[in-house]
Design goal:
The protein is α/β, with parallel strands linked by helices. The protein contains 16 helices and 21 strands. The strands form 4 sheets. Strands 1, 2, 3, 4, 5, 18, 19, 20 and 21 form a 9-stranded mixed β-sheet that branches. Strand 12, helix 7 and strand 13 form a beta-alpha-beta unit. Bound molecules: zinc ion (ZN). The site of zinc ion has 5 residues, from loops.
Length: about 500
């Protein structure tokens, strides 16, 4: 009888189903792109293929709530993500450009993981207003709202802002509320890269929650963190604010990645006013002694709020036009240029590096106690905030290779910050539920066959700040929509991923 024929049966794994329930030994049968049976001792005679997963752990494929994958068409088999067990990646845009028009782009995508897309505020503002430090005119606001609507109707699952960055940080809260309001549809989400992740973190969390209050949208905060030597230990107050909002009936969730450093552009070390307009505007400002003095004073405070305060806190990924310092620190740069390794010397160096095009960097800034508090919170999902990586190329943050296995190895197995079941939940059903991703995130009949099979005793990250190009270890098999993208530890090259559009009706 047809109902008993399976394309694949996975036998003998410890199944962690993504709900938080205790693992159990069992078999999983797959037909086409769906899980059709979860049971003990399934007959395999009618299976086209059988995988013996004895001694291994089977879980729903991991859902990545925030990574930078706008260019995924150029990296159709993104091994750095697949080797973390990730089967679905959400491209919540923050400062990045939105593919446009989104619908045809999604139609043409043929990549290994499932992908999920958002409408992007930064991209709209650049397109309509450029880098000007001013509010939009009513006509400009209407045009931005129109771009939001287009993307939502093309399948974006929500509206994503990156208010820490130029030019988005020129937007007043009302602009964000108006545009997020234009994204309002069944199942839509408001994604926030907060306006501030350091000294004004709490106010920034309140601003994001207020968007939810004013628009009725669920709020998802990406890569929650408390940065800066002055702000260590602020995690408790932030979580209390999130709890309080949820207690009033709002939906506020977040994701977090397990590293004490973040990675971004050098612009986060500057006040926004100095970066408004063109590079010539910037050069004119820093050449004016009074303006430069004011800038330096503000930057000294920002440096404390964005880093651990030392010249070792900044590790360069790429300095514009100068390849020699990839992986080196600001202290290395000061030494190489015979500059004083003082607070003043650091700030002068940063001002000049920005004039010459700026840099991308890794910024040591977070405390373990905040990271673990965030990870443990019931509304936390795990993310990587990672990039698409060509192996060996550039100087990435290790999160791009290791975030999810680092949770399973370091935080679960070594430190017991979470049980394995709780960690899997935060990588699967939690983000699926919070981001309204349908029929994924659990091992359950009728759900899509996005499945990871890993060795719970070995799974770990290997990428470090000193040596970032190292794949994670321990992912034995990975299925996306029933198709193997990793088999016996080897990447197959298959591209079964789908662009998952927002479900347009309330379920
Ligand atoms: Zn971000």
């Amino acid at each position: 009888m047809a109902a008993d024929r399976y394309d694949l049966v996975i036998r003998g794994a410890t199944i962690i189903d993504g709900t938080g329930a205790a693992g159990f030994r069992g078999d999983v049968a797959i037909r086409d792109d769906r899980i059709v049976k979860v049971a003990q001792d399934l007959a395999t005679s009618a299976a086209r293929k059988v995988i013996d997963a004895s001694g291994l752990t089977l879980a729903p494929g991991f859902i990545e709530p925030h990574a930078h994958i706008t260019d995924i068409a150029s990296y159709p088999v993104p091994e750095n993500f697949l080797r973390q067990g990730i089967t679905t990646i959400v491209n919540s845009l923050h400062s990045l450009d939105q593919p446009y028009p989104l619908g045809p782009f999604l139609d043409g995508l043929k990549v290994a993981p499932n992908t999920v897309w958002t409408a992007g505020h930064s991209w709209q503002r650049k397109r309509i207003i450029g880098l000007d430090n001013r509010p939009p005119t009513p006509a400009e606001l209407a045009r931005m709202a129109q771009l939001t609507s287009e993307a939502m109707d093309d399948g974006a699952i929500g509206y994503a802002t990156g208010l820490e960055y130029i030019p988005a940080n020129f937007a007043a809260p009302d602009e964000v509320i108006a545009l997020a309001g234009a994204s309002r549809r069944p199942n839509a989400i408001y994604f926030s890269h907060l306006r501030d992740e350091g000294s004004a973190l709490l106010a920034a969390v309140d601003e994001a929650i207020n968007v939810g209050r004013k628009t009725g949208l669920p709020v998802h905060i990406n890569h929650l963190k408390s940065t800066g030597i002055a702000n260590q230990g602020a995690g408790g107050a932030v979580l209390a604010a999130i709890d309080a909002a949820n207690d009033t009936g709002l939906q506020v969730s977040f994701d977090v990645y397990p590293y004490e450093a973040y990675s971004t552009y050098s612009t986060v070390l500057f006040p926004s006013w100095v970066l408004a307009g063109s590079p010539a505007d910037y050069a004119r400002r820093i050449d004016d002694p009074a303006t430069r003095a004011r800038l330096k004073q503000e930057m000294a405070g920002i440096y404390q709020a964005q880093t651990l305060g030392t010249p070792d806190s900044v590790q360069f990924r790429e300095i514009a036009g100068d390849a020699r310092f990839a992986g080196k620190t600001l202290r290395d740069w000061l030494r190489a240029h015979n500059r004083p390794e003082t607070a003043d010397g650091m700030i002068d160096a940063l001002i000049e590096l920005q004039r010459d095009g700026g840099f991308t960097g890794i910024f040591m800034a977070m405390a373990d106690r905040d990271i673990t508090a965030f990870i443990r919170h019931p509304r936390a999902s795990i993310s990587s905030d990672g990039d698409l990586i060509a192996f060996g190329k550039g100087y990435p943050h290790p999160r791009s290779y290791g975030a999810f296995p680092r949770i399973l190895g370091h935080y679960v197995r070594e430190r017991q910050v979470l049980t394995l079941e709780a960690a899997v939940l935060k990588m699967t059903s939690r983000p699926a539920q919070d981001l309204h991703i349908a029929d994924r995130g659990m091992v359950k009949p009728g759900y899509f066959a996005d499945i990871v099979i890993f060795d719970a005793n070995r799974v770990t990250d290997h990428a470090t700040f000193a040596d970032p190009h190292r794949y994670s270890e321990g992912i034995a098999y990975l299925l996306v929509n029933g198709v193997l993208v990793i088999e016996s530890g080897a990447v197959t090259g298959a591209r079964p991923g789908r662009a998952l559009r927002r479900v347009a009706t309330n379920q």
